[in-house]
């Protein structure tokens, strides 16, 4: 499969004619090539976006919304094809791509197509001064959207949809590891009637193509989802140009379980929040903290359930965990198992690479549960981003809070309890952008999404995203 850049509504080769291999994580084989784009390709995309901006930013909201809804419908009608492509590119089970990734990509477009029609600006009658102030929310212009490999189309469209809805033109870069569904989106945009140049997709390495987007002096806003160290690098690059930044970064999320919770629901959800998408979701609860009174029971029940999870062929509907996204990533995750052993943690289940018959070259790993005695160890402090969770007991609410908050990250936290007062006390004090109580990863797209501390800056979702992608202008009218 040959992937090309999507610029000015057309599919074109990179100007330097340099290409990168694209791998299928399920069997480790190369099955495609992608552009190794550079600054020159970004410049071409920028010029096409610039030419399109006047028309798109002046298109009526009704028309913009109509086109975005059409994109959403086309994503839905191509569900099967897109889900298979996402799985082949990323290693995730097809069933997961079909039930989560692709439907959510469609919802992203539908949601922001509607949200833009409800996005009101403020006006103030400045009493006593004979003046009216009103705020215009104007599109920024050309914006950059850079997304990671774990939820490829889901997160790509989570940025693009609000950017387009707000009237911007976009230059977007998916992860070089998972470019295929972003490539397929180009055709869908054309079919939906998105005017040429409004959206441009550049493929290639983060350090060259991504860096060129961030360095471009006239791309005035960057919405980025990825690792914390990449986010810090982007912030340093963008700061002298005073760019608007939205940074959605890593997490090391606590999953706090009290003895008074609804046990069976908690147990099933905890298996999911630990290992969904091979544990490669920024929101996965990778640190499980359990009240001492139920710790031994939980440990036995959880490990038994984890041992029953099926790892293997992503196209098999019974598969729970597919392949990890790439060989380097698998090696990185396995490296954390070695660190855990060095720190005398106890591997309760898993810990090894797996060879799957007929998929011998694939990047598979056993879902892994590690018992730790301290929150200070590497596996409780560093983001592993794979099928690895740690468990440890706590004795009191105060200790649970202290353990939960003792990392540099602050993305999400999950709390399992039926005690209302405790819920209210703890939700307030947990250092996380999102707190789930008795559930996990339930999303309402109107709510703000993002992290505290090293998990990011700014919020996406709902009107927060439309605020990010617009420039507020105050106009003061004296009468
Ligand atoms: P990376 O930070 O490595 O990459 C993210 C994106 O940035 C990719 O498209 C990458 O390109 C690109 N990139 C890399 N370097 C640069 C650069 N110098 N300038 C511009 N762009 C660059 O993250 P991963 O792809 O490995 O994704 C995993 C990370 O994403 C985890 O830390 C995870 O927690 C985080 N994440 C956060 C979420 C959130 O909402 N908070 C949600 C999902 C993931 P390329 O891949 O081609 O190198």
Question: How would you sum up this structure in a few lines?
Answer:
With 479 residues, the protein is of the alpha/beta class.
Write out the strand line-up for the largest beta sheet, numbering strands in chain order: 14-17-18-13-12-20-21
How much of the polypeptide forms β-strand, as a percent range?
15-25%
The count of helical stretches stands at 15
Bound molecules: NADPH dihydro-nicotinamide-adenine-dinucleotide phosphate
State the low-pLDDT regions, or none: none
Q: Main β-sheet: number of strands, strand sense, barrel status?
A: 7 strands, mixed
Level-1 CATH class name of the largest domain: Alpha Beta
What is the β-strand count? Answer: 24
Mean pLDDT, as a whole number? 98
CATH superfamily of the largest domain, please? Aldehyde Dehydrogenase, Chain A, domain 1
CATH topology of the largest domain, by name, is Aldehyde Dehydrogenase, Chain A, domain 1
Helix content: 40-55%
Instruction: Choose one word for the global shape.
Output: globular
From the alpha-carbon coordinates, what is the Rg to the nearest angstrom?
Answer: 23 Å
Q: What structural category arises from helix and sheet content?
A: alpha/beta
Overall tally of domains: 2
CATH architecture of the largest domain: 3-Layer(aba) Sandwich
The first-to-last residue Cα distance is: 64 Å
């Amino acid at each position: 499969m040959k992937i090309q850049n999507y610029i000015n509504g057309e599919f074109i080769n990179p100007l330097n004619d340099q290409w990168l291999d694209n791998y299928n994580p399920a069997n480790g084989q190369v099955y495609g090539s992608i552009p190794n784009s550079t600054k020159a390709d970004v410049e071409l995309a920028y010029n096409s976006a610039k030419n399109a901006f006047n028309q798109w930013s002046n298109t009526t909201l009704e028309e913009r919304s109509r086109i975005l809804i059409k994109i959403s419908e086309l994503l839905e009608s191509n569900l099967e094809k897109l889900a298979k492509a996402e799985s082949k590119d990323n290693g995730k089970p097809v069933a997961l791509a079909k039930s989560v990734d692709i439907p959510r990509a469609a919802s992203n477009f539908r949601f922001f197509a509607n949200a833009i029609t409800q996005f009101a600006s403020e006006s103030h009658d400045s009493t006593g001064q004979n003046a009216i102030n009103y705020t215009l929310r104007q599109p920024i212009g050309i914006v950059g959207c850079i997304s990671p490999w774990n939820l490829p189309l889901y997160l790509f469209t989570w940025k693009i949809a609000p950017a387009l809805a707000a009237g911007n033109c976009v230059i977007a870069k998916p992860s070089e590891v998972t470019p295929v569904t972003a490539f397929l989106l180009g055709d869908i945009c054309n079919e939906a009637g998105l005017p040429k140049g409004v959206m441009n997709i550049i493929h290639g390495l983060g350090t060259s193509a991504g860096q060129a987007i961030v360095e471009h002096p006239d791309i005035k806003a960057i919405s980025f989802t990825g690792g914390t160290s990449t986010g810090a690098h982007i912030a340093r690059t963008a700061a002298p140009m005073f760019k608007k930044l939205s940074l959605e970064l890593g997490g090391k999320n606590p999953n706090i379980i009290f003895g008074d919770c609804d046990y069976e629901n908690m147990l099933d959800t905890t298996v999911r929040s630990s290992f969904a998408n091979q544990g490669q979701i920024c929101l996965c609860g990778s640190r499980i903290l359990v009240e001492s009174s139920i710790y031994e029971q939980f440990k036995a029940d959880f490990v038994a359930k984890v041992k029953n999870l099926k790892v293997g062929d992503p196209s098999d509907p019974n598969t729970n965990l597919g392949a990890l996204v790439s060989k380097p990533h698998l090696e990185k995750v396995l490296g954390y198992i070695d660190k855990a052993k060095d720190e005398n943690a106890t591997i309760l289940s898993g810990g090894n690479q797996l060879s799957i018959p007929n998929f011998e070259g694939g990047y598979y790993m056993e879902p892994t549960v590690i018992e730790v005695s301290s929150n200070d160890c590497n596996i409780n402090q560093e983001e592993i981003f794979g099928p690895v969770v740690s468990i440890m007991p706590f004795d009191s609410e105060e200790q649970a809070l202290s353990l939960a908050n003792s990392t540099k990250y602050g993305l999400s936290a999950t709390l399992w309890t039926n005690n209302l007062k405790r819920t209210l006390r703890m939700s307030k004090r947990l250092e996380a952008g999102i707190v789930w109580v008795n559930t996990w990863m339930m999303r309402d797209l109107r709510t703000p999404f993002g992290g505290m501390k090293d998990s990011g800056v700014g919020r996406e979702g709902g009107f927060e995203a439309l605020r990010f992608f617009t420039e507020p202008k105050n106009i003061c009218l004296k009468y």
